[in-house]
Amino acid sequence: MTLRSNVEAVINILFNEDAKIQAAQATRSSDDNTPLPKTYWKRNQREVQDVIRRQMKHVDEGCLSDPPDIQLVKMNPITGITCTSRGTNTNERDNLDLATKILTATVMGLHRAERLIYGYFEGSNHRKRIRRCGDKDHGTHATEKLALINTFALTLGYQTHDVPYLCNKKGSSST
Predict the structure, then answer these.
(1) Do residues 83 and 132 make contact, with C-beta atoms less than 8 angstroms apart?
(2) Strand 73-75 relative to strand 82-84: parallel, antiparallel, unpaired?
(3) Who has the most CB within 10 Å: 135, 141, 160, 166?
(4) What are the structural domain ranges in the chain?
(5) Taking the CA of residue 160 as centre, how many other CA atoms within 13 Å lie in the half-sphere pointing to its CB?
(6) What digits encode the pLDDT tens for the residues 72-104?
(7) Gap between the Cα atoms of 64 and 3, Å rounded
(8) Which residues contact 156 (CB under 8 A, 6 or more apart)?
(9) Residues pairing with 83 in the sheet
(10) Does residue 73 sit in helix, strand or coil?
């Protein structure tokens, strides 16, 4: 119940701030061109109320509560920087980067898109392991390390189906 009342308090504050902004817009003189802050909510109040009502169901069901016995932050032992262990900010950033920087071609084959996406997330995860977990940067990603291990294993006489990083279920190469 505390979580719901806290969420409702924040929503009310945002509605009050919007009311102040809308009052300032309505009462300012026609020659005043100073920019006003943007409102938090869309203009369609009915739509906003509908979304809030649907989302509050998740609050009531505990979806926004922190799970017990889970470490909520992680400190990089090398830099001392603390990062949150939860949230969707990095996922949202990754999706934005994919949409605006990586997958920019109007026509693209499935294989190329898959390679670009895989390569992007490989690099993103590599940077996160260094920044958040304190891993050392050896200049290679996990895929490159596995390719090197595969090469060594095959050179030493292992068969393709014996190299778990190289084979898919049918036993053919997947690299």
Answers:
(1) yes
(2) antiparallel
(3) 166
(4) 2-60, 73-135, 140-175
(5) 9
(6) 788 888 888 888 776 677 778 888 888 888 888
(7) 8
(8) none
(9) 74
(10) strand
Question: pLDDT tens digits for 40-83?
Answer: 887 778 888 898 999 898 888 877 766 677 777 888 888 888 88
Residue type (1 letter), 138: H
Q: Is the pTM of this model over 0.85?
A: no
- Please say whether the beta carbons of 143 and 123 come within 8 A: no
- Tell me if 102 sits within 8 A of 115, measured CB to CB: no
Q: CB under 8 Å, gap of 24 or more: what pairs does 39-48 form?
A: 40/14, 40/15, 41/14, 41/15
DSSP class of residue 68? Answer: T
Q: Rounded CA gap, 136 and 130, in Å?
A: 6
Q: 142: which 2 tokens? A: 């996990």
Q: Write out the two tokens for 1.
A: 């119940």
167 φ, ψ (degrees, to nearest 5): -105, 145
Number of neighbouring beta carbons within 10 Å of residue 61: 9
Asked if 166 contacts 151 with a C-beta cutoff of 8 angstroms, the reply is no
